[in-house]
Amino acid sequence: MTTNGRVPNFINGQWQNPAAQEFSDVINPATGESLAQAPLGGDEDVAAAVESAAAAFPEWRSTPPEERIQYLFRLKRLFEDHREELARLIATENGKTLAEARAELQRAIENIEVACGIPLMMQGYNLEDVARGIDEMMIRQPLGVVAAITPFNFPVMVPFWFIPYGIACGNTFIVKPSEKVPLAMRKVFELVEQLGLPPGVLNLVNGAKPAVDALLDHPAVRAISFVGSTPVAKYIYSRASANGKRVQCQGGAKNHVVILPDADMETTTQVVSDSAFGCAGQRCLAVSVAITVGEARNTFRDAIADSANSIVVGPGIEESSQMGPVITRDSKTRVEKLIDQGASEGASVLLDGRRTKIPNYERGNFVKPTVLDNVPPGGELSKTEIFGPVLSLIPAETIEEALNILSQSLYGNAASIFTTSGAAARKFRYEVGAGNVGINIGVAAPMAYFPFSGWKDSFFGVLHSQGRDAVEFYTEKKVVIERWPKYWSRKF
Ligand code: NAD
Q: CA-CA distance, 199 to 191, in Å (whole number)?
C-alpha cells in the first residue's frame, strides 16, 4: 500500500495506516538519507491489534499443531526465496554488511525450523495409577495473546527468536520492531501475508514507547518478550510483571574474552577481531574487552591492531565492505566520546577510529575499528556498554586475576576463553559468570535449539528465548488427575 513513506501496520490480516500523529525518519546510516517515516505513537494501534489477536485465539488454539506448523514450513521457503531482497533491506536500514545480513537471516530461518518440531516439543507427560485407578497427566496449553518488543541491531533475527515458537504453540502474536529499522519487518509481513494465516494470528504494530506501554498495560496481553538495552529491559520487566504478565527481558552486554599465552594466536586474533568489529560492534555478543594473560599481552596487542586496521569500512550494501556504520549520528557521537573518555582515563589509543570519513559517504555514521590498550579495569570505559567497534585491552598476570576482573562486570551476556589447555578451559567454564560461554569461540551465539542464556544485568526473567525455553515460556502447564469409578470397578 502507499502510505506517503509512513510505515504501515499489519493488523487482522490487513495493512493499515498507523493512527500515530508523530513520526521519525528512518535513516540510512551509511548515507544519512531518509528511507521512510516510522510512527512514534502506537497505543491506538496496539488496542486494535490486541482485539484482533484475542478474537483469533480460540480458533487458532484449537487448530492442530501439525496444521499450525504447515504455515511455518511455507514461511521458511518464502524466507529462502526472498533472502537476498531481505538482506539488502537489512543492510540498507541497519548498516551491517550483506554477509552479516545473510547470516542474520539464516539464524531466523533456523528458529522457524526448530519451531516446526512443536508437535513433539509441546507434548506433556502422564502416568497411570498414581493411586489405584487414578491417572495423572500434564498438558501444555497456549497462553493467548503474546507480544515481542525488539531492538535495532538484528531487525529480523531477534523477532524470530520468538514469533515461530509463539504461534506454533497456539498463541496469537503482536510484534513491535525498533522504530529505527521497521522496513525489514515490513517486508517479512509481505511474506506473512502470502501464508494465508487466519487474520489476527500474527500482527505487526510499529511505534515507540506509547506502543510498548500499551502492550505492557493491556489486560489481554499474557506475555511479553523483550530484547534491547538494560535500562529499558528493567523498566519493561517491572511494569509488565506488576501487571501480572509473564515476562522475559534480554538486556545489554559488556562481553569479555580471556586470552592465555598458550592460545593459537593467529586464530585467536582473527576470531576476536571478527567478534569485536563485526556488525560494527553492535552485536549483543560482540567482544568488548580482551584480557590478555602474561605473555599473551604483547603478541595479541600487535596482532589485533594489525588485523583491525585491515578491515575495509564502507556502506554495508557494497559487497566489498567488511564493516558498516553505526546506527545513528547519536551513536557515533556517543562511541567517540567513550573513546575520548578511555584516553582520559589513561588508556593508550593503539588504533583510532574517531573522525572517520568514507569518500562519497561523508554523511554516514562511520567509526573505524578502535583498539585501546591498558584500559584501567575499574574505569568507566571498562564498565560501560559501548555498542560500537571499540576493543579495550586489559593485561592480567594470571587466569585468576582475569576471572576476577570479569566478575566485576554488571553484565553476563557472553564470555570466552582462548587457550589450548583443557584444564584452563574447564576452570573458565566452571567459574565464569556469563550465560553464553565460548571456548576458542568469539561470538558464542547459541543455535536455535539451545536457549540464549544471558545472566546478571543482561537478562531479567527465568525462561530464555529459543528452543525448549521458548516452548516453556509460551505455554501454560495444566495437570489433570482423573478417576473413572465405574470403569475402575468393571470386571473384564
Ligand atoms: P533499546 O532498548 O533502545 O530499544 C529496544 C526496543 O525498546 C525498541 O523496540 C524501542 O522502541 C523500545 N524502547 C526504547 N526505549 C523505550 C522506553 N523508554 N520505553 C519503552 N520502550 C522503549 O535498544 P536498541 O538500541 O534498539 O538495541 C541495542 C541494545 O539491545 C543494546 O543494549 C544491546 O546489547 C541489546 N541487545 C541485547 C540482546 C540480548 O540478547 N541480550 C540482543 C540484541 C540487542
A: 14
Classify residue 312 as exposed, middle or buried by CB count within 10 Å of its CB (0-12, 13-18, 19+): exposed
Output the pTM of the full model.
0.97
Q: How far apart are the first and last CA of the chain?
A: 68
For 184-200, what is each residue's pLDDT tens digit?
A: 999 999 999 999 999 99
Residues 93 and 37: beta-carbon distance below 8 Å: no
- Please check whether residue 405 is in contact with residue 394, taking contact to mean a CB–CB distance below 8 angstroms: yes
CA 341 to chain centre: 28
Task: Spell out the domain ranges in the chain.
Answer: 9-251+458-479, 255-439
Nearest-5° angle of CA 423, CA 425, CA 431? 100
Q: What CA–CA distance (Å, rounded) separates 458 from 255?
A: 10
Nearest to 337 by CA among 324, 348, 325, 353: 353
Ligand 1, atom 42: nearest CA belongs to which residue?
284
Nearest CA to ligand 1 atom 34: 252
Q: Which of 93, 157, 212 to mutate to test the pocket of ligand 1 (most atoms within 8 A of CB)?
A: 212
Torsion of the alpha carbons at 178, 475, 472 and 137, rounded to the nearest 10: 180
Q: Look up the CATH number of domain 255-439.
A: 3.40.309.10
Among 151, 147, 178, 177, smallest CA distance to 163 is for: 147
pLDDT at residue 2 in the model: 47
Angle in degrees, CA 28, 30, 32, rounded to 5: 55
How would you write 209-240 as a 3-class SS string? HHHHHHHHHCCCEEEEEEECCHHHHHHHHHHH
Domains 9-251+458-479 and 255-439 share a fold: no
Counted residue by residue, the chain has a size of 492
Residue whose CB lies within 8 A of the most ligand 1 atoms, among 7, 216, 229, for a mutation test: 229
Q: Is 169 a catalytic residue?
A: no
Question: Which runs of consecutive H residues, i.e. helices, occur in 259-379?
Answer: 265-277, 296-309, 329-344
Phi-psi label, residue 54: left if phi above 0, alpha if psi -120 to 50, beta otherwise: alpha
9-251+458-479, what's its fold? Aldehyde Dehydrogenase; Chain A, domain 1 (3.40.605)
Across the range 143-168, mean pLDDT stands at 98
Q: Over 70: is that where the pLDDT of 59 sits?
A: yes
